[in-house]
């Protein structure tokens, strides 16, 4: 009997934010050790975990990766962590697949590695795992993500999810305080921030490119309503379907912010808070996942590859270690109303499908 629902229900009730997945990682590591894996905790001094199963026979090294962190929400005025992106499901599927793979003696050559990664939502977890050496000996890497209903339904799976690059910029805009009755003596940081938002909105890249840049946070408060505020903070979310245009977009956004606020006598310090690269997927891994999906769900269960404006820090692995053949697929789950929605829900029967697809892929490479 599969343990996937047991694992899911436990992990779902202990959501933890990025790099704080202490209970989550302890549970996963203990389960892997009990199953018979050699487990290394605290990768790169984080909550990351690497487990290994060595067949003792020469062959490739295949790694399965799952993320562990929950999302931060403010619900009814209360800050909380909640699993609204399905990372509890990802961990449950990969853990269950690992348990069944070792129990059924499926690894007959090479080595299987299991990566449980922290802080995907922060865009920093994959980099921490790479810096900790988790991929130094890996030949192939597979990851996956639950898909929203509009992309993929229950009983279907996507062989390649082509994610976009994403950068989050924050500008700290500084003006000069003054009494609201004497605005000419100050520099209004709120006015400057508005100018910066408008300047970014006026940016253009080549029409054939797929990209966006939009302000997503605006904080400005002098503490009273009759003073000119001297400080504002604005965040922008930048997206690009491929990696190459992102550098151009970032440069234009930073220039637009700095020069627009300077026109009013203010200054801006712009920092990059988070970056995730666009998808780099190896065709051999897409073929492997396609074959595995068809074997589990039949030909009708295999969709075409799909493009998404979403981002995934999984692709730091492929960019930082280009010698690794990386594949990333999507699981249909009838997920509504959407990822990152506070009330996100999906059909739990899909988790068993995910386990079977991973097991099939492993058997094809290491069996």
Automatic annotation (TrEMBL):
Its EC number is 3.5.1.-. Coiled coil: none annotated. GO terms for molecular function: hydrolase activity. InterPro entries: AmhX-like (IPR037484), Amidohydrolase (IPR017439), Bact_exopeptidase_dim_dom (IPR036264), Peptidase_M20 (IPR002933), Peptidase_M20/M20A_hydrolases (IPR052030), Peptidase_M20_dimer (IPR011650). It holds the Pfam family Peptidase_M20. Gene3D superfamilies: Zn peptidases. The keyword Hydrolase applies. Keywords: Hydrolase. It is an enzyme of class 3 (hydrolase). Residues 169-259 form the Peptidase M20 dimerisation domain. Transmembrane segments: none annotated. This is Amidohydrolase.
């Amino acid at each position: 009997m599969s343990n996937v629902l047991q694992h899911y229900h436990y992990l779902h009730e202990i959501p933890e934010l990025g790099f704080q997945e202490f209970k989550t990682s302890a549970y996963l590591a203990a389960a892997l050790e009990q199953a018979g894996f050699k487990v290394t905790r605290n990768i790169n001094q984080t909550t990351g975990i690497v487990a290994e199963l060595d067949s003792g026979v020469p062959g490739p090294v295949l790694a399965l990766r799952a993320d562990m962190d929950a999302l931060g929400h403010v619900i009814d005025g209360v800050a909380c962590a909640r699993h609204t992106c399905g990372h509890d499901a990802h961990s449950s599927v990969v853990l269950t697949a690992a348990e069944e793979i070792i129990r059924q003696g499926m690894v007959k050559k090479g080595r299987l590695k299991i990566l449980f990664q922290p802080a995907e939502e922060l865009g920093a977890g994959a980099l921490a795992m790479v810096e900790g050496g988790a991929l130094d000996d890996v030949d192939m890497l597979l990851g996956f993500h639950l898909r929203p209903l509009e992309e993929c339904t229950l009983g279907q799976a996507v062989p390649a999810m082509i994610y976009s690059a994403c950068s989050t910029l924050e500008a700290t805009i500084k003006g000069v305080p003054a009494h609201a009755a004497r605005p000419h003596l100050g520099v209004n940081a709120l006015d400057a921030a508005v100018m910066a938002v408008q300047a970014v909105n006026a940016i253009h890249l080549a029409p054939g490119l797929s990209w966006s840049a939009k302000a997503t946070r605006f904080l400005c408060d002098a503490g009273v309503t009759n003073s000119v505020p001297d400080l504002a903070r604005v965040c922008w979310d930048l997206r690009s379907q491929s990696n190459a245009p992102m550098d151009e977009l970032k440069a234009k956004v930073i220039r637009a912010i700095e020069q627009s606020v300077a026109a009013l006598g203010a200054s801006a310090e712009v920092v990059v808070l988070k970056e995730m690269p666009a998808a780099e997927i190896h065709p051999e891994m897409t073929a492997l996942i396609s074959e595995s999906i068809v074997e589990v769900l039949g030909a009708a269960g295999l969709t075409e590859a799909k493009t998404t404006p979403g981002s995934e820090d999984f692709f730091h692995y492929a960019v930082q270690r280009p010698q690794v053949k990386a594949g990333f697929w999507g699981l249909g789950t009838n997920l509504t109303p959407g990822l990152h929605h506070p009330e996100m829900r999906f059909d739990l029967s899909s988790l068993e499908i995910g386990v079977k697809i991973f097991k099939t892929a492993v058997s094809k490479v290491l069996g």
